[in-house]
Amino acid sequence: MADSANDNDNLPRRVALLALLWLTGLYLRIPILVAPPLAPRIGDDLGLSQTAIGALTTVPVLMLAVGALPGSLAIARLGPRRTLILALVLVAAASAARGLAPPVAVLMAATAALGVGVAVMQPALPALLPLWCPRFVALASAVYMNGMLMGEFVGAGLTLPVIMPLTGESWRLTLLVWALPALAIAAALALPRSVRASGGERPRWQPDWHDANVWRLGLLLGASSMAFFGTNAYMGSILSARGALEALPMTLLLFNVSQVVASVTMLFVSGRLLARRGPLFANTLATVVGLVAFSLLEGWAALAGALVVGFATAVQLILLVSLPPYIGASAEAGRLSAGMFTLGYAMAFAVPLLGGLVADALSGAVWAMLPITVYVLASMALIPALRLEGSRA
């Protein structure tokens, strides 16, 4: 049965639920983003090509799209809580299994399984919120998204200076250390009073591909995701072409910090911005301006453009991911989220890849940002027709 309104009005319980959400959100990104700082050591140890090294990060991103629909099916069959627990266990096992390589096939198979686990977690969380936090969905969404964005920062920033010295500079043990907390979070989710199952009919799992709202939300999610991933991917090449490669570490750091700042800001204002077209327009326009500034300007102006992209895409991501549990019940939130993530991350993978092909054809790294910028600008046309009303409006 669902949690009662009185339970949700209990402050200690609410804090405990939000804390568990935040910890779960960490593992939407930590297992993926510990790979880039470890990649040079893994590559040297296993004799990997540059393509294989890149696949340690790009394969999980692709799996975010591929695994969303199986995640929706699992939610329909098992419920969001059990699905989330199993996905966390898969993430922990796959992340640790990467340390068993060689052979390289084990490394790549475990990397793909890790991506599937994270992909299954993504629709499970929005499906869980109407059951778990029915009276503060916007805040709960902002909390777990803050955890996700902090996971990006923690995974990329603490692996080399903090975890590696503790493991004797072993990349294998480092992967294991990062994996183990996911099991503790899964155990906390399994506690009898953490989340109760909902009753009623078994929900449908397939996204309604005839629903234009699924496509609009998915394509908008793709716009914010590709702007973030694309800027991250091509930042080094663009700065190198300008002779400013020495600025890359600080630019990357501030770019990712801007996402954390945005997620903290949303903890306080998400309820006022959710399900409104104005903020969606503003973030999309700010992203376009930031992409153009980073692509065409230099020095502090380019840095400012990157920070605008980081902040605006984080706010947009939180607003979009918060919509399924806000506009519908748990039974529909999972499959709507799955459709969004399938479309969004497919676009986030394909369009930056197209940008690389354009950059190669025109012999200039900056051209990689052109398809991304054009897509984000065109996505503004989707916002007026969005259906934002729902059972919680």
Describe the structure.
The chain has helices at residues 5-9, 11-26, 30-33, 35-46, 50-66, 68-78, 80-97, 104-132, 137-166, 171-189, 212-241, 248-273, 277-296, 299-327, 330-362, 369-379. It is mainly α and 393 residues long. The protein has 2 domains: 5-189, MFS general substrate transporter like domains (Growth Hormone, Chain: A, Up-down Bundle); 212-382, Growth Hormone, Chain: A (Up-down Bundle), CATH 1.20.1250.20. 52% of the residues are buried.
Tag the structure with descriptive keywords.
single chain, 393 residues, mainly alpha, Growth Hormone, Chain: A, 2 domains, 16 helices, globular, disordered N terminus
Outline the secondary-structure elements.
Blueprint: H1 5-9, H2 11-26, H3 30-33, H4 35-46, H5 50-66, H6 68-78, H7 80-97, H8 104-132, H9 137-166, H10 171-189, H11 212-241, H12 248-273, H13 277-296, H14 299-327, H15 330-362, H16 369-379
Helix pairs in contact: 2-9, 4-5, 4-9, 5-8, 5-15, 6-7, 6-8, 6-15, 7-8, 7-10, 8-9, 8-14, 8-15, 9-10, 9-12, 9-14, 11-13, 11-14, 11-15, 11-16, 12-14, 13-14, 13-16, 14-15, 15-16
Question: Would you report the number of β strands?
Answer: 0
Percent helix range = over 70%
The structural domain count equals 2
- Which structural class fits the helix and strand makeup? mainly alpha
Shape: globular
Number of helices: 16
- CATH topology name of the largest domain: Growth Hormone, Chain: A
CATH architecture heading of the largest domain? Up-down Bundle
Average pLDDT number: 85
Note the beta-strand portion. under 5%
Any idea what the radius of gyration is? 20 Å
